[in-house]
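Each field is set out underneath.
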Amino acid sequence: MSLPGSGGVAVGGGSGGADRGPSTAATLRGAALSAAMLLAWAGVVTADRLGVAGGLAGAAANHLLFAGVACTAIAAAVPKFVAVWSGAPLRWGRPAVAAAPLVAVGTAGVAGGLLAGSMPALVAGGTALAAGLWALAASTTRTLAAVRPWDATERLLLAGTWSLATGSLLGLAVGAGRAGVPVLFGGVSALGAVTAHVTLMVVGGVLAVGYGGGFQLSAMLTGAPDSRVASGVERAVSIVHPVGAVLLAGGRLAAASGDATAGVATVAAVGGVAVGACAVAVGGVVSHRLATGGESSAATRRYWGAAIGFPLWGAVASTRWATAPLSRSAVLGGPVAQAALWGAVAFLVVGSLYHIGPFLVWLERYADRLGLEPVPDVADLYDGRVERLDAVALSVAVVALLVAGVGETASVAVPGWVGRLGAVAACGAAVGVARNLATVVREHAPWSPATLVRGGATDGQQ
């Protein structure tokens, strides 16, 4: 979800070729699609809380946030990030550039199918989503194949992208089964496929890539000094988290396939506790860097939400998983844990969007003028008042949804308006983010709207 300071170089060559990275316009297009998915997620959450959403609104909201918002941002940023970070040319660049639009369009189809009860839309959307994630995983793997040894970030990127790709196939199998085309085999039940699908996509995929990006951006944007402890935590998380996610997903899949033995539950519980411990560790590293670093920005202010949200989610979810790792109601740890995870992921992605969009536009439009004429700062490209308001709105949304989650799990009477307030606040935050990013593109981007939509360069730009 992160992006280092580098210029964009357009993709050229065929699917087997090597490129320095996707065009800046292509990366920004993916960021814009992620912001659009954020609007859609907030809208569905609001409709659900107001009782006017049809179909499987909860599942649609989860798909819009984790696949639409997070995975689209991942598919937009990783192709450029991995080439720059590893110092290796991007391989299979054209499929990688197509990944973000495929993920966004596919997620829209899946969410629409869930809301409308349309199985054809569900399967078509799932197919596009899976194609985008497989393209991303293949390109990332091919790019890093020649890089040795892999560092913690590269391990997390590889583990995360392949977890997303594998999880998308399980989701597609579930959708096909709902449409009357049974593709599950080996005694695998739909319930097992659903829980394993969610675990691989969210825990194994979104969080692994998010942790890798969060580690790097929290260090780069704050200027925090290097630490042996932080480096050790990064290395440990890059191994323990993927293994824990596989154990949790594998245990759930095996249990729902008729092998619900005590040993299977123990395997899943061990994986869940490991995942929770990693979330706490990630929060500790990021919060330490935010506290000791000398820089503050729209991105780093939102990373505080992730630094608090991930440990909260990890603590609540792992406590539940330690005793009931196979429970369908606790696939993400229960209502409170899910609200904390929503908030952590939303803060992380929105913070990264506030870095990616303005920084890329500033780089293309103003970087070569630095020292020759007055140029604006990156933060001057968007409205600071709107940025502060959408940060407050997102904070209110997360707190309200957490309180509503407590009301769903404990014998505590929580008024219904609390959840509705959280949903409306989420809408306000999404509108603010989208407005600011649109302002950056409209007033400062050097490309025409058509060029941005194509994700390619014109007028002599390579």
Observations:
- The two ends are 24 Å apart (CA to CA).
